[in-house]
Write a structure and sequence with these properties.
The chain starts with 11 loop residues before the first strand and ends in a 12-residue tail after the last helix. The chain contains 8 helices and 2 strands; from the N terminus they run βααβαααααα. Helices cover 56% and strands 2% of the residues. Helix 4 runs antiparallel to helix 5. The protein has a two-stranded antiparallel sheet with strand order 1-2. The chain folds into 2 domains: 12-19 and 28-97; 106-160, Fumarase/aspartase (C-terminal domain) (Ribonucleotide Reductase Protein R1, domain 1). It is mostly helical.
Amino acid sequence: MGTGPRAGLGELALPATQPGSSIMPGKVNPVIVESLTMVVARVVGNDATIGFAQTGSLLELNVMMPVTAVALLESATLLAAAADNFAERCVEGLEATDRGPALVEHGLMLATALAPVIGYDEAAKLAKDALATGRTIRELALEHGIDKARVDELLDPARMTEPGVETGPAGG
């Protein structure tokens, strides 16, 4: 979501934490996310150590308890520090870009919201036309003769996240 600054999804703008990329001037590298990933790799390794250590005895006394304790405590310490660092140096400065809403507006999935009103076949035609022409479902729905207020209501992405199915010719 933070790829870019101009290519990729570019839905998020990461806070700059270092001068930039060594191969692409001006790019913000996701170094805090990368550091968190390295911590996760170490914790996964510690988990493997703990799992192996639990097989460390033929008797009831597990001679590998010290390595289990060290791995567990190291993991807890690393995760706590990494979570604090991630929150402070990445999450707090994270910003949404205009790219996310633009991708939704140009998404073909919006045609699905029109199916209960104009029928599946007509909604599919609009989606195919939008793909072929680069136009939006909203533009095509208005040309199709659906009232602007109704189009705005039907193609409201926030409303689409709420439960419930609209009834109509193809509803159900």
